[in-house]
Structures are given as structure tokens and as C-alpha cells.
Amino acid sequence: MSSAAGAPSDGGGDRPWQSYHTAYTNGKAGMEGVDKEKVQKVIYEMSKGSKYFENEQKKEAITKQKIEHLRAQCAKLNDNDISHFQKKILELEASRDLSKIWLHTDMDAFYAAVEILENPSLKGKPLAVGSMSMIATASYEARKFGVRAAMPGFIGCKLCPDLVFVRPNFERYTHYSELARKVFQRYDPNFFATSLDEAYLNITEVCIERGITGEEVASELRGAIHQETGLTCSVGVAPNRMIAKVCSDINKPNGQFILPNERDAVTTFVSTLPIRKIGGIGKVTEQMLHQVLGITTCQQMLQKAAFLCALFSEGSTDFFLSVGLGLGGTETPEHRLRKSMSCERTFSATNDYSLQFEKLDNLAENLADDLQKECLKGRTLTLKLKTAAFEVRTRAATAQSYISSKEDILICAKKLLKAELPLSLRLMGLRMSHLCGEKDDPTIPTQKTLDRFFRLSDNNSNVNRTNGASSNDASGGDDCNIGATTKDECLIHDAVTDISSDQHTFFSNDENIFVPEERSSVNYDNEVVSSNLLTCDDLGGTKLDGNTSNSKVTQSEKFDDLSHFTSCKASASSSKPNQQFWVDGYICSLCGFELPPCFEEERQEHSDFHLAELLQQEEALDSSGHLTKERLAERQSTTPTPKKKLKSSKEGKHIPIDSFFLKHNKKL
DNA sequence: GGGGCACCACATT
DNA sequence: TTCCAAATGTGGTGCCCC
């Protein structure tokens, strides 16, 4: 396989900056003639040693691992593995459609151009729209210095000391964007915009009706845009959208490039085209294809088709081969509904809980406002966190019903956040998905698994999920809506209630430790408890991606005084099993089960555990962590489930309580 | 084994 | 001196459930 792996050296040595790949070291319109090496060195020097830089290196290392993995896979391939590609290519080739003419238009340095238009004194100056932390757009004057979009402002300043900064003004950009769109409408009423400054137009009809060429439409459209907005744009015309987009970049700024609707023209065009120019191929994919298969141009995709088919999924392979053939979308895509709505904020890193919750409150408010503006509600809330070390985490919970109010969002979001603390954070975000319009009639999703559980466990059970929610919701919000926020939680919550007919029962399974309502009434310092008890990191660290995964921890919720139950999912292969043992032992004792001796040791070891103290304060447990006699008697009198001895198949080994519960339950 | 879901990485502007 | 965004979509993966 060595022939396929044209593994390039990745720099290093006495020129470390050469291997520091950033988004801005790639070619971008207006950056020809820039001393790339100098720019790269400046960026490297300014980034070196920062948290951001360290995180980038971490990410690079993960990419490298993936590359190694793919190389190893590649080396194992036999002749049979790599013989199934020609049919695929023929199929794709058969789908080629040269009957449509697509035009892609892209405003030149849009934000910067609008600012200059509004304030002509900026003309000719190197301009950056953005802030010291991030540049959204750089004018062409600034690009000559290597300054570009997505670059932090302070690096821009270093590259170009005279760089002028302007704060973005989206209302302005929207206004100009609308002017441009009115022009697009004339050429294709079904045009679709991909951002404020870019759009695709199917100009097939216009060309036929008016008997003009794509080139003529392009010139005319650019003229009209300039006339209507005072701004310039660049245009690409090609038989499909993928190529049209590449074409619009060729003669930027204020230019156009037309690729005729001929197969040869297309294949010639893509033959030397770097894969990075293709939309959808970013930094990581580019590196992977290059370092595993030596692919740098689109045509090489076809040369390495056999390997691509053998190494990647069908979807990915189809995409890669289409790139090689110069195929792309030719039909106007159906209007797609919004899938999610989100907002996020970066701030200076903080580990101050109150500040973090304050930020969360603001985010919830923003998101609720945005949702309500569009009359949308959603079911899945995703919390995004970026730690001070730039590590990004997302945590999601799905509510039983559709929500959009700030209060509902916040209850859910708080639970997700609490489960992650303590953390030093530099960014938080909230995203709502599983959307539906308010006018729609959102069917409450059925819990098939839950139904099944009920059928299996207790036909007489008449559990009311929502009414089962805690009544001590301090927020006063309608906790019923999101009492159980995930399917698992609904299942477990109902299972708990079902098994015991007693909300004081604890339930756990291999990966879930759930603590229902009773905990919610404990007046403890929730922040400290929830963070001391079983954080994701405590239980094995962050889940790694894909095949490299060596530790598994998933989590959903933990102790939360606002909910009627809480939960924590932890992997059985916890790196700190003691804590899980302890918790399970604790659950055992609360349920009135006899504990295997190993739990006693665990408890001794963790006698200083904060929660134990709190429980003692509550007089639920005695000094050894067992239920007090009074509480035990009370529990036994109200719990119909017979007390069982928890057997240990192997001395000192942890037995998941859930297997016990589940077995027990199924027998009923 | 397939569908649904959650999580995450990647991509684009 | 210090400083690296926001919004959104897609696809892969792994898990659970049927």
C-alpha cells in the first residue's frame, strides 16, 4: 500500500510554524502575493503556548491518530477489497446532467465593502470588520498583509499595524443583502441564498427565454448588483452548483468565470483543482486524503477510487467520487425548514458558578425570544460548553413536550450545566432542536419503551408521569413539562415509581444511577454536591471519537433540587470505580438491601464523602452510611417490593443493581 | 439488523 | 499585557430498543 500512501512530511524541525496549519494559511481571494511564510511565522509566534494553541495541537494529534488508523486499514486491503469501484463510477457518470446552468454569486468582502460604502473615509485603508478577538471580514487592502476572516484581531494587528477595526453592523448587511436579492429574483425567482452575501441561481430558464448565454447573464447580473447596491460581486457559472461555487472564486473580486456545459470542460477543470477548493472538504478531510492516499487534486479522487471505496462509507465515497467527476447538485433543492435554533456567547474564562448561571440565564432568555419570534417550540435542548482549555462539550436533553419559554429552557439548561461543574468556561451556548411550529399540533411523542415496560411490569400501575413530578419546584415553573427530560429518564422514572409505588425508591442500571424525588427535597448546597458527586470526568473522562475511544462516559443529569428526580449515567468501566461502588452501595442501603461486604469497605474509604454528611444531617443514614432504623422501617412499610438480598457472584465485585431490579421486575 | 436518539466532529460563512 | 466568533447543518458512531 505504500504506493497509495504518498505521505508527505509535515514540516517541523527548525521551522515549526510550517506545520502549524491554520484556517488562514490557505489561499483566499486577494491573498496572492502575500509572503505566506512570514504570515505563518507571525501567526505561529503569536499563538505558541496559548491555551488555544495547545488545544489545536491536541486536535492535530487526534487527526494524526485517525490518519494512522486509516493507513493501517489501507495496508490491510487485499485485491478483492479494492475491486468494487468501477461500477460506482459508471453509475455516477450516468447521472451526469449537463442541461442546467447554475450561477453562484458572492459579494466581494461583503461586510467590509458595506462599511466602506457607508463611510467612504475608510476607502483604501486596510479594514477589518470584527473585534480584537475575531475578524469577520477583511478588506482587500488588509488581505495584502495576510489579514483575513476568521483570524483573531490581535494577530491581524500584528500582521498589519495600521489595520482599522469596525464593529459589525448586521442590520446594514441585511439591508444590502436584500437589495441584492431583489436582483437575484429577476433571474431566478427560486434562487436560494446560503448566507447574506452568497446565493445560487438556476439561470437555465432565463438563458433559454432570452436567448442569451450564461456569460451574458453573469455580466448583466453583476452590473445590476453594482447599480442597485453600489457593491461588487463575483460570479461563477457552471452546469452544477458545486462547480459554480468554485468558479465564482476564480476571478474574485469583481469578476466572473464561466465553465461551459460540456463534459470535457468539466473534467479538465477538475483535473488539477485542489480538493480544498470544494465545498465540504475542510482542513481535516484534506489532510486525511492527502496523508493517507496522497490525494491533492479532484482528479486523484478517481485514481484512488478503489481505496476510497474500501476505506470510507458509501455516502462519503459517493461524495468523493462526484468531486472527482465534477458532479454536483443540479436540481433546485426543496425549501428546507429550520432544524434548530441556537445562541452562544464567548466571555473571559470563569469558574464562578453564579456568573456561569447568570450567563446561562441570558442565553435562555435570548433563545426563548428568538424561538418565540419565529413561533417555534422545540424538544431537545443542547448545552454547548467550551472550557478555558478550548475543549468543546455538548450535552443534550429531550423534553417530553415542546417548550419555548425561558423558564422551561432554563430548568433544563441548569440541569445540564450542573452535571458538568465545576469547570472553567469561556463559552456557553444553547441550541433547541426537534422543532415544531406553535401552530402545528405537536403530538406528544409516545414512549414505546415505556409502554412496554408498563405492560411487562404492572398492568395496574397508573403512574401519572407529569403529576409524579416534584411539587417543591423552587422556581415555580411548570416542571411537569420537563420533569423527565430524556427518554431514559422517563423510563427510569416510571420504572422507579412502578417498582416501588414509592417515590423514595432508588433505581439503577449498568450505566444509570438515578436518584428520585427524595433527594430533591434535601436542602443541601446543590452546587457542591452535584459537582463532587460523579462528574463526567470523575467517572472516566471525556469520550473520545470513533475508533480511538478508550474510555466511555456518557452522562445526562445529576442532583438537582428543582427536579423530581435526577440521574447520572456513568460507564461501568469507570476509571474511578470506587465512587460508583459507593453510590451503588448507598442506593442499596437506601433500598434496604443487604450489602455485600465490599461495599462496606467502600463506604469506609469514602466516609468523608460530602453527600454522606449531608444525608446524616438529614438523618437518613447512620454514621456508617446505612439507613437509620426509623427510615428503614418507614421505607419497608411503604415499599411493596419484597426485600431481597443482593447476591455477589464474586466477592468484592460490583453487581449492577439494575440487573437485580429488572430480573425481579420481570418475574412479577 | 434497523430505527431512533444522543453526542460529537467537521464544515461553511 | 492580553487576545482565537456565531449560527447552523450534516454525517458518523455507538447505544438502546424492538
TrEMBL record:
Gene Ontology molecular functions: damaged DNA binding; DNA-directed DNA polymerase activity; zinc ion binding
Annotated ranges, domain UmuC: 102-282
Residues covered by region (Disordered): 1-21, 627-652
GO annotation, cellular component aspect: nucleus
EC number(s) on file: 2.7.7.7
Keyword Acetylation: no
InterPro entries: DNA/RNA_pol_sf, DNA_pol_Y-fam_lit_finger_sf, DNA_pol_Y-fam_little_finger, DNA_polymerase-Y, DNApol_IV, Rev_trsase/Diguanyl_cyclase, UBZ3, UmuC
Keywords noted in UniProt: DNA damage, DNA repair, DNA replication, DNA-binding, DNA-directed DNA polymerase, Magnesium, Metal-binding, Mutator protein, Nucleotidyltransferase, Nucleus, Transferase, Zinc, Zinc-finger
UBZ3-type domain ranges (all copies): 581-618
Biological process annotations from GO: DNA repair; DNA replication
Subcellular compartments: Nucleus
Reactions mediated catalytically: DNA(n) + a 2'-deoxyribonucleoside 5'-triphosphate = DNA(n+1) + diphosphate
Reported cofactor(s): Mg(2+)
PANTHER family tied to this protein: DNA POLYMERASE KAPPA, DNA REPAIR POLYMERASE UMUC / TRANSFERASE FAMILY MEMBER
Protein family membership: Belongs to the DNA polymerase type-Y family.
NCBIfam families: PRK02406.1 (NF002677)
Name assigned to this protein: DNA polymerase kappa
Organism (species): Brachypodium distachyon
